Amino acid sequence: MDNGASSYLRFLSGDKDGLADIIRNYRDGLVLYINSIVGNIIAAEEIMEDTFVKLYVDKPKFKGKSSFKTWLYSIARFTAIDYIRKHPSDLYTQLEAASGVADNADLEKRAIKNEEKRALHKALQKLKPEYEQALYLTYFEDFSNRETADIMKKTEKQIRDLLYHARKALKTELDKEGFVYEKL
Amino acid sequence: MKSYDETIASVIAKGDSIIEHRRLRAARIRRTTAAVSGLCAAAVIGLGIHNLKDVDPSPKPFEMSSHDIEISETVSTEPATDAADIVSPTRAPEGVSRENSHNTRTVPGPPAARENSTAAVKQNDHSNTVKPYVPQQESADDNIADTHSPVNGVNAPTPVNTMPAETQVQVTVTTADQNAVIDTERRIYMKKFTSMLTALSLSALSMPFTSTAAELILPPEIDPNNTFGYTNHSVYLFEDEIIDYTKFQNGELETDVNGDGKFDLLDCYEVFTIQDEEVHLNPDVNLSITEDDLKDYENLLNYYLITHDITADIVTPEYYNDPYFTDNVYVDAKHSIWHQYYKEDEQFIKAMNEMFAYRICGSLTLLPNGYTLFEDMMDKGILDLDFDSDGTLTPADMNIFVTYMKDREENVDRYSIPTYLNTFQSYHESYRVFTKYLRDKINESTDMVHVFGDYTWAEQDVLPEDQFNKCTDALNALAEYDFFTDYRYYYNNEPLLIQAGLLKSLVDSNNVFFSDYHGYSLGGNEDLDSCCEFFFPDLIFKNMEMLPEYSEASYYDTILPGGESEVTANVMDRYSKKIGFKELIPDNELGSHTLAQRAYDQFVEDVANGLRKAPDLNNDGVMNSLDLLWTGEMYSSYDYQEYPGSDKTKFTPEQWENIKTNCDFNNNGISGDHDDYYIADIYIINEFLIKNPDDISTQTLVSIFESMDEEANQQNLAIMESADIDRSGDANCDEETGLADALLILQNNANSEKYPLSVTGNFNADIYMTGDGITPLDALQIQKIDANVPIE
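^ Those are the sequences you sent over. The predicted structure of the assembly is below.
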C-alpha cells in the first residue's frame, strides 16, 4: 500500500477522483486527529475540509520523504494551527456550545471499531492535548515515533519523552476509570 | 457529520472558489504591471524620440538631418481624472479638529495635556518620542499623477498622461527641399509612428489598472497591488487591514478618537480600553465611538504603528502607567472609564497597560515597520545584533543568530503551562497570572533557556563564546520587549492553543502565535521568528546591497563552518525572492540610481561587452522587436508557477526552459522573474525597436498591433489626424505616391471593407483638405501630383 500517494499522483495528473479517494480514506482519522488539537469536533471537520482544499488548490508536492499519510497529517496540523490563530474566538464559542458531542461520538464509533480503544480514546481526551496528540498518532493511527515526530514537528527524542509522560498520565486516567490497557 | 460525497463536493466547491479568486488576483497584478511597463515604455520611447533630434548632423540617405528639417514638437497633456483620484491623498491633515458629535467634548486632564491639546501640531511629552507620520502632501492643483504611480510604489515618469484620449501632438515640419521631404518624411514618420504606436498600445494597457486602483483611495505607502505594503519591507499587509487603514486615511473613520485635535497613541489607548466588554456593554457609558464602529477601530492601533516610527519606550508597559494615559482616557467629560471602573484597581490598570504594550509588540511582528523598533533599540544600545563585532550588520551576523536559534531549538524542551491556569474563569485574572508566571520564569535566570524547562544547553561548539553570549544578550533584550514571546510560546504551542478557550483574550490580542504561522504562511521556516525572517534582513539590507551569494549555503559555510548555513541561505533566498530586489530600492523610482536601474545598466554593459546575451524570449536565436510580444507572457508565466492552477504558460517547453535558464537579467539568481521582465521590456524597446524601425520584426510588430487593437488604432489615427504634417498620399504604403494610391482611395471610398486602408495608409491618403477624412478629392489631388498639374 502506498497510503494514498498513487491517488494523489492521479489527482495531480488531473483526475479529481484521486482526491475523492484520499478524502474517503483519510477523512475520519483526520477529523479525530484535528479534534485532538483544537478540542472541537465542529471546527475539526471544517479544518479537515480546509486541509483537502489545500491539496486541491495548491497541489503541494509530495516528495516521498515520508509516507503520504504522515505528510497529510502534517498539513492537517498546520491547517489546524492556522485555524486556531485565525478563529480563536469562534473556537471558544463553539467550544462553549459543545454542540459537536453527538458528532464526535458518532465519528468515534465509526472510526474506532475496537471498544477497548474507544474507551482509551475517551480517556485520551482528558489528557493534556499534546499527550493526546502523540498517543493518538501512535496508538490509533499506528504512526512510528519518527513519523509522529515529523507530524508534530518535534525531534524523535522529544516524542519519546512525550510518550513516556503521556503514557503515565493516561495510565493514571484509566486507573481512575477502572480500565486496564495492557500496552501501557 | 457530512457524508463522504458531501465532503468531497464541499472541498471541490471551496477549492474552485479559491482558484477563481487567485486567477482574478493574478490577472489584476498582470494588468497593473503591464500598465507600469507601458508607462515606462512610453517614457523610454519618448526619450528615444527626443534623442533622435541629435542623432547625427551629417545628412545621410534615409536618415533624419537637422540641416534639412526642423521639428518643433509640443506635447500637451492633461492628467487623467481618475488617475488623479487614485493617488490624491484625501486624508485630512493630522491635527485638524473633527467636526462631529465628539467635538462637544472637553478634554480635561493634566495641565500639560490641556496645553498640548490647544495646539494641534504641538507634541506632548510622550508623543515627542514618536515621530509623527507626515503624509506626502500635495496641493490640490498639483499634478500628482506625473510624480507617483501607486503601482508597486514605482514612480512612473509622466505616466497616465500618455493616455491616448488626453494626448495631443502637434508636429510641424518645414522642408527646404521638397524631394528630400518625401524620403525623409517617411523616415521620420516611420520612426514616430512605430514608437508612438508601440507606446500607445502599451499605455492602453494601463486602463484596466486605472479602473482597478480607483476602487481604493490609498496613500502611496499602502498599495493593494503591492502585498508588501511598504515599498522596502517584506512583511505582508492583509487586504482587510488595508481596507481599514484606508478608512482612517481618507477620513471616513475619525482617528482623533478623544477629540483633542490630534491622532496619537492616546487615541489608540482609548479605543483599547473601550474594547473592554465591561465598558462598551455598559449602557451608562457614553462611548466616544459607537459599539457598531468598534470593530472598524480594531486596526486603529496598527494604523498608528504603520504610520509612525516606533520607539522602544512605547512597547514597555511602564510607559502607560503614566497618569497622562490613565487620566486622559475619557468617554466623555464626566465619565472617565478609569474613574468609573478601574481607578481604584491599580493592579488592574497595570495589567491593562501591560496588555496594551504587548499588543503593540505583537502587532509589530506583523507590521512592515516593526523593524523600526529594532533600529531604535540598537540606537539606544539596548540591542546589539552585530554578533561578529565587525562594526556593521551583515548576513554573517544573521547566520550567527540563526545558528544560535536553531541550536537552542535542538536542545531545549517545552515546559508545561501550569494547570492551575485552567481554574481561572476571568480572562483578566488568568492573563495577569500567566504574564506573571512567564516574567517570573524569565527573571529566575539570566539565560532564556531556563524558561523552557529543565534542559540545559548541549555543549556549544559552533559559535565562539563571545558570539554565543551576544546572541543570548540579544535574545534576552528582545524578550524584554516581548519579541520572541511568540517564540517562547511556540514551544508551548499545543498546550497554549488548547487552552485558547480559557486564554482566548490573550489570543484575541494577536500578540502570540504568529511567529511560525507567519513563516509557514509565507512558505518560510516555521521555527524562526519574524525577527529572523524579516526584520533582521530588513536591517541588514537597509545599508547594503543584496547579492545572489547571500542565498547560497556555501557562502556561510566559509564564514562559520558547522553553522546553520542552509537555514540562513534559505531565509535569505525567501527574503530576496519576496522582495524581488526592487523592494530594496529606496524610493522605487526607475531612472534614478536604484538597484533596478543599476541592474539594467549592468545588463546593457554586459551585453555590449559580449558577456551576456540579449533577451531572446521567444528563443528564436535572435533578439528583435517580436520578443516584445513575449514579455507579457514571461511576466504572467512567473505568476502561474507561483500560483499553481491559475493558468498555464503559453511558452513551448523549449521556450520555457530558455526563460527559466537564460533570462536572469538582473542577476538575482531567479531566471524569468518580474524584474527580468522589466529589464527585458525596456531593453528590447531601447536597444532594438527604436534603433531598427525598418526591421521586418518591427514592421511585423506594428502590423500585429494594428490588427490587435482597433480602438487604439482609432485613437492613434485621431491623434495623427490632428497633427499638422504634410501628407504624402502614399495610401498603399509602398513608399511611392502614384495612380495606384489614387485608385486605392477611390476603391476604399466605394467599398471600405473590401479595400481597407491601413492606419498608415489612411493617414497618408488625407492629402487634400487634411483633416476632413478620405474623400475622392484626395484621389484627385494625387492624380494631379502624378500628372505634374500645378496645385492651388
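Residues 92-102 of chain A have pLDDT under 50 and may be disordered. The longest helix of chain A spans residues 16-38.

Shout if you want it in another format.
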